[in-house]
Amino acid sequence: MIYATGDCHGDFKKLSNAAFPEQKEMTKDDIVIICGDFGAVWDADGQSPSEAYWLKWLDEKPFTTVFVDGNHENFDRLYTEFETVDFHGGKAHKLCDSVYHLIRGEVFEFSGKRFFAFGGAQSHDIDDGILSREDFKTTGEFKETIRIWRKRRKVFRVEHVSWWKEELPSDEEILNAEQNLAAADYTVDYVISHCAPQSVVSCMYPGCSSPDMLTNYFEDLSHRLRFRWWIFGHYHEDRKLLGKFILLYDQIVRIL
């Protein structure tokens, strides 16, 4: 069995026994996919007690949890703290025995079907900017600016604390994707991402969406790639769009 759901942001109650009773019939061979903003690798000071609790809680579930990264992940930690392993035909970061981060651009095989995974998204909650320690003469000035901006209720994030440039892919990650897809003859069964191709975003928010390099890349890829379903998160809704694009947030849907 393969299930998919949307953003968790470090809170996994929707995968509890009460909210997700289907898990009673699952084993570690069964998969639950989270479409980005996993959020249990987040704290800039290292693993928090909450993160440790939820990772242990997930690891003790009867199923295996996998996720693509969203824009709200601590990439400093996600990319350095965890071992890279071979996993179902692709590369993944192993967070614990049954929790894995699917590395961008990799193709995996679950239940005999091909899954192309590519996380990331551009943050849309940075209207007032991104603060960086490097832009200030002293740490005191930096912290005081954060305090003032919060008091003024500005919409911003802080580099290496709540925002990372790695939210958008590197050239190397896109090259990895293209090489793996070429090896698969640009044919997969499922695409798992956090954000969506630009045409899908424009369908959701007519006249109100600005393209970025990842939504544009996905738009181009959606015309070159043969796939059955494209499943994504990020936009905090549950919707089916343009025939074969599925946006998930609260819902947990069985896809195999």
How much helicity do the residues have? 10-25%
Number of helices: 6
What is the number of E strands? 15
- Main-sheet strand order equals 4-5-6-3-2-1-15
Strand content: 25-35%
Q: Return Rg in Å.
A: 18 Å
Order of helices and strands: EEHEHEEEEEEHEHEHHEEEE
| CA-based shape | globular
What would the average pLDDT be, to the nearest integer? 97
**Structural class, please?**
alpha/beta
Terminal Cα span? 5 Å
Low-confidence stretches: none
- Specify the biggest β-sheet: 7 strands, mixed
Could you characterize what this model shows?
Helix 5 packs across helix 6. The protein is globular. The N and C termini lie close together (5 Å). The chain contains six helices and 15 strands. Strands 4-5-6-3-2-1-15 form a seven-stranded mixed sheet. It has helices spanning 49-59, 75-78, 139-151, 171-183, 198-204, 213-224; strands spanning 2-5, 31-35, 64-68, 83-87, 90-96, 99-102, 106-110, 113-118, 129-131, 156-158, 190-193, 229-232, 239-241, 245-247, 252-254. 36% of the residues are buried.
